[in-house]
Specification:
Elements: E1 4-6, E2 9-11, H1 29-47, E3 52-53, E4 56-57, E5 59-62, E6 67-70, E7 73-75, H2 80-101, H3 104-108, H4 111-127, H5 130-138, H6 143-168, H7 174-182, H8 188-208, H9 210-216, H10 218-226, E8 233-236, H11 238-241, H12 266-269, H13 290-302, E9 309-312, H14 314-317, H15 327-348, E10 353-359, E11 366-367, E12 373-383, E13 389-396, E14 402-403, E15 407-411, E16 415-425, E17 434-442, E18 449-456
Antiparallel strand pairs: 1-2, 3-4, 5-6, 6-7, 8-9, 10-12, 11-12, 12-16, 13-15, 13-17, 14-16, 17-18
Helix pairs in contact: 1-4, 2-15, 4-6, 4-8, 6-8
Bound molecules: iron/sulfur cluster (2 copies).
Residues 234, 270-273, 275, 277, 285-291 line the site of one iron/sulfur cluster.
């Protein structure tokens, strides 16, 4: 259906299309901080897979081998509890820091903000600042416009693909991936994921930008529940700024009945989400502080004190004192300290060797004549250490019980051994349903000992 407008209503559309936002370049202390954060975070991301530790890639999530290498630590599927704990700690930390400092994460550290900043930086370098970009978009397709647009797209695509390639490098050894890509021998899946993550970066940071923060990010929606009246937010001091209005330089604003806001709209022009902070706190505000820098520069120019737009709290705006210790921060601190204690303790107590004992389910037991009663087991030993170890396996729990053939073996670092064994107990002691204990002990002086219980079945157990 064609669009028709009339009487203030727009027919034929389910939603109003968004106007493109052209943020103006801004300079100031927070812009500098944002740039530093961008360089540090992007630098860490792009360099991360190139770091080595113990002659191996320092950070590698090796999904086919089901092993995660994080510097000196190797996480096996049995250790995923630590990853789950880490994710919970990160989530609670986000709640905690939001209660304290508002959306500091969104404005300075969120990948969406950081890559959008990088893409915008390329765009501004090629197409110029806000007014030039607006003019260029409206201008007819001349050679200069095509040249600028093609160059921008080329650099955006290159950065997006490099991001996708680096991301895949955390899952597939980056040096091998690089040589495979350069020699056109990369696997189909590797190519697919490089292009997939490249396209995601391009779409999010090049096109959707503030739309991701406004409509796709769940954090923007539930942040209100994490805020309280003492949370740090970016606010416009309407008491000081209103009534707003332009005035002649050097004129007495007070005599004209005007506040400090000169209504220059700079705070709106620099906003990457295109909002007017003077209308109050809005969920679209990502707390990037660009409006603070813009307004401070204007205040410097007109000779008024800085801080008409500033970091503040609702209580501070009502001239009440700030409270750091409050029920919300106490609860989050308690949960964080508990989780961190659990995490550190469990990592400190983490066993370098895991032993699983699986009882043979095909036969309850076998009568092996004068030798006694025999049960079968499969022992699975996982050596999570990087070094090789020598082990000896013994069994106890029934008088005279023994492993049929002595079990001494060597196990290479980071490897798994599956060992079928037979355990024999004398007839007179082989009562059904006895609990027995397997003990695996390193014989190379490393002090590793693991025990695991199982059951031994005999005739009287039937
Ligand atoms: S930048 Fe400051 S002075 Fe200019 S419109 Fe915004 S609040 Fe008012
Ligand atoms: S209102 Fe200010 S802090 Fe919020 S997104 Fe816009 S420029 Fe950034």
């Amino acid at each position: 259906m064609a669009n028709k407008s009339g009487g203030g209503y727009e027919y034929g559309k389910l939603y109003r299309s968004e106007d493109k936002v052209y943020p103006r370049e801004v300079k100031g202390r927070f812009a500098t901080l944002r740039h530093i954060a961008m360089f540090v975070l992007l630098g860490a991301f792009y360099l991360g897979p190139w770091l080595t530790w113990d002659n191996r890639q320092a950070i590698l999530f090796d999904l086919p081998a089901r092993k995660f290498y994080i510097f000196g630590m190797t996480l096996w599927p049995q250790d995923f509890i630590y990853l789950a704990l880490l994710l919970i700690i990160l989530a609670v930390s986000l709640f905690f820091f939001t209660a304290l400092a508002g959306r500091l994460w969104c404005g300075f550290a969120c990948p969406q903000t950081v890559w959008t900043e990088a893409f915008s930086w390329i765009e501004m370098a090629i197409e110029g600042d806000r007014s030039k970009r607006m003019k260029l978009d409206k201008a007819p397709w001349t050679f200069d416009k095509i040249r600028k647009k093609v160059l921008k797209q080329f650099l955006w695509i290159a950065l997006a693909l490099f991001t996708g390639y680096t991301f895949v490098g955390y899952f597939s050894t980056i040096r091998t991936l690089t040589s495979d890509l350069l020699s056109f021998q990369a696997g189909t899946w590797e190519l697919f994921w490089v292009i997939f993550y490249g396209a995601a970066t391009y779409g999010n940071a090049g096109f959707m930008r503030e739309q991701v923060c406004k409509y796709m990010c769940p954090y923007a929606r539930f942040q209100g529940a994490m805020f309280d009246r003492d949370s740090l937010i970016i606010t416009y001091d309407s008491e000081r700024g209103e009534p707003r209005g332009s005035r002649r330089r050097g004129s007495d604003a007070e005599a004209q009945g005007l506040g400090d806001c000169v209504d220059c709209t700079m705070c709106v022009q620099v906003c990457p989400t295109g909002i007017d902070i003077r209308k109050g706190l809005q969920y679209e505000c990502i707390a990037c502080a660009a409006c603070i820098d813009a307004c401070d520069a204007i205040m410097d120019k007109v000779g008024s004190p800085r801080g008409l737009i500033r970091y503040s709290t609702e209580r501070a705006l009502e001239h009440k004192s700030y409270r750091l210790i409050r029920p919300r921060t106490l609860v989050y601190t308690g949960i964080l300290v508990t989780l961190l204690t659990v995490m550190v303790t469990t990592i400190a107590m983490r066993k370098p060797v895991i032993m699983d004992v699986i009882r043979d389910r095909n036969a309850l037991y076998r009568d092996v004549g004068r030798l006694g009663i025999e049960n079968g087991y499969t022992i699975r030993v996982i050596n999570k250490h990087n070094e090789d170890h020598d082990y000896s396996l013994t069994v106890s729990g029934i008088e005279g019980i023994r492993i049929r053939d002595a079990v001494d073996f060597s196990l290479a670092g980071e490897s798994v051994l599956t060992l079928p064994i037979s355990v024999i107990a004398p007839h007179e002691n082989a009562a059904g349903g006895n609990v027995i204990e397997f003990r695996l002990e390193a014989t190379d002086g490393s002090g590793i000992t693991v025990t695991e219980e199982s059951r031994f079945r005999g005739p009287t157990g039937r």
